[in-house]
Design a protein that fits this description.
The chain is α+β, with helices and mostly antiparallel strands and about 500 residues long. The protein has helices at about 5-35, 60-70, 80, 85-90, 90-100, 140-160, 180-185, 195-205, 205-220, 265-325, 330-355, 360-365, 365-375, 400-420, 450-455, 465-475, and strands at about 40-50, 50-60, 105-110, 115-125, 130-135, 165-170, 175-180, 225-230, 240-250, 255-265, 385-390, 425-430, 435-440, 475-480, 490-495, 505. The protein has four domains: about 30-140 and about 145-160, Beta-Lactamase (2-Layer Sandwich), CATH 3.30.450.20; about 165-265, Beta-Lactamase, CATH 3.30.450; about 275-355; about 365-505, Heat Shock Protein 90. It is elongated.
């Protein structure tokens, strides 16, 4: 049948037929994978504190059982099936994490001590957090080359059911071959357009073309192609694709052909951009909120200090004057002395509240001076050793950054004094690699970080959540490290606009 005839049939079938094909895609995919010779695993990657830690098996094909000799694996974790896997294959776990988070396909070789075999593995992600692994046993250089091609072919079949485009480049003849899905993905007409390098260049986004060509050239020499870039269709539509492929060679090492697939990842990119936009908006709203709160604190502090404080001071002066005038009246003098003492206490109390709301020293002298004042005014009688180590001197930073750092230190130190049962608490402050770094470290009892994070997510405990939001609003990053019996470290990092000299901490 000619291309024109095929196009006519497809047009006559209409949207209903297309929907039927898409509904059948999962069944077709499983059927295809059940009959390939390579082992295939579809799994979900598990993360802990942002690091990949395991893989849950959701689907394995019959070849998986034959190759690994492992049975009853569905729903089970990889590290339970192979307990020594994390220690011996940590890099593989990292690769699973990168691919599951949209980092693009990866291929590699690995040795699994628990199975006593070397494997060639190809990874791709059909959906965020999920990984499709195609693998087989390696027995030599020639077989390794063959198995990698088979893995890629198996992966291509799997992705074809989802509408991915398949392509082949014969580097001996220079001929390109594209599947019908490839033409559709690139917005081309198989009856009118031809599979040439110039046609491909015409559709690749002009801003991404140089990088895309460089990746292909590198794959000719390095064997593996992996890239993500944009397409600008003739209709004006913008699409994102993920490209993967592998190069085959003759016995002398001369490249023969490159085969691969293109997968439409536009929806993922749009979702990621929407997520980034939402995060930016939340940060902006949080910044506005914190600015409003700090402005209110500053206003109250000023009013307490300037108005209430001065009025109380005037009252104290007037009472002292009256006491002197009534020196002959012992009872009156006693009462006045009591009143003067109460007023003096109120003056000190008002000043303390004003400084707590917004320490004037933070606006006047900066972060280091305000933290030195804060550490110095804390009660020492029954407290752990508390010290400040800083290497920024009198250097100033943006007001929002200084306030975020100061409030975070306040919260972290307060938590340590109340809950840590620590012998020592150290506040660190320095500039390194163009960033301001702030730490609060104690040697106390520590806590279960995962449990604390869960409470924070459920808004049952606002400490960690508040510190993170405050840091994010000022453009910073907050990390917390703790474990029962291992103390706690709260770390802040604020990237600075200009390069900053590194500093060694010194004790004040």
């Amino acid at each position: 049948m000619s291309s024109r005839g095929a196009g006519a049939v497809g047009k006559k079938a209409g949207p209903a037929a297309e929907r039927r094909v898409r509904e059948m895609s999962p069944e077709l995919l499983v059927g295809a994978l059940d009959h390939v010779f390579n082992g295939v695993v579809l799994g979900r990657v598990l993360f802990h504190r942002g690091r990949p830690i395991d893989l849950v098996h959701l689907y394995v094909n019959p070849a998986h059982t034959r190759i690994t000799r492992m049975r009853n694996v569905l729903g089970r974790r990889l590290c339970h099936l192979l307990p020594d896997f994390p220690a011996s294959n940590g890099e593989v776990l990292e690769a699973l994490g990168r691919v599951a988070r949209g980092g693009g396909p990866e291929t590699f070789e690995m040795f699994v001590p628990g199975l006593g075999e070397w494997f060639a593995v190809s990874l791709s992600s059909p959906r965020r957090e999920y990984v499709l692994a195609v693998f087989d046993v390696l027995t030599g250089a020639k077989r390794r080359e063959s198995e990698l091609r088979q893995a890629l072919d198996s992966l291509t079949l799997a992705q074809k059911a989802a509408g991915a485009g398949i392509w082949t480049w014969n580097m001996v003849t220079g001929k390109l071959t594209w599947s019908a899905e490839f033409f559709r993905l690139f917005g081309l007409d198989p009856g009118r357009d031809t599979a040439t390098v110039e046609t491909w260049r015409r559709v690749v986004h002009p801003d991404d073309l140089a990088e895309a060509e460089a990746r292909v050239e590198a794959a000719v020499a390095g064997g593996v192609l992996s890239n993500e870039h944009r397409l600008l269709l003739a209709s004006g539509e913008l699409r994102w694709i993920s490209v993967s492929g592998s190069t085959s060679y003759d016995e002398s090492g001369r490249p023969l052909a490159m085969r691969g697939i293109c997968i439409d990842i536009t929806a993922r990119k749009v979702a990621e951009e929407s997520e980034r936009r939402a995060v930016r908006q939340l940060k902006e709203l949080a910044a506005i909120q914190f600015d409003a709160l700090e402005n209110e604190r500053k206003f109250l502090s000023r009013e307490l200090h300037d108005e209430v404080g001065q009025s109380l001071a005037a009252l104290q002066f007037a009472l002292e004057s009256l006491r002197r005038k009534l020196a002959g009246n012992a009872a009156a003098v006693t009462d006045l002395r009591t009143a003067i003492g109460i007023v003096a206490g109120l003056v000190d109390f008002t000043k303390d509240i004003a400084r707590g709301l917004r320490p004037p020293i933070l606006d006047d002298l900066g972060l280091a001076a305000s933290l030195r004042w804060y550490v110095g005014q804390l009660p020492r009688a029954e407290s752990p050793i508390l010290r400040l180590e800083q290497a920024i001197g009198s250097r100033r930073f943006p007001p929002q950054l200084e306030m975020a750092a100061f409030r975070t230190v306040q919260e972290a130190v307060s938590n340590a004094l109340r809950h840590a049962q620590a012998r020592a608490v150290v506040v660190g402050l320095w500039v390194e690699d163009g960033a301001l770094r702030v730490t609060v470290q104690d040697d106390g009892v520590g806590f279960d970080l995962a449990e604390a994070e869960e409470r924070s997510r459920r808004l049952r405990s606002l400490g960690l959540l508040g510190m993170r939001e405050r840091a994010a609003a000022a453009g910073g990053e907050l990390q917390v490290e703790s474990a029962p019996g291992a103390g706690t470290v709260v770390s802040l990092r604020f990237a600075l606009q200009e390069g900053s000299p590194d500093g060694e901490a010194m004790t004040l």
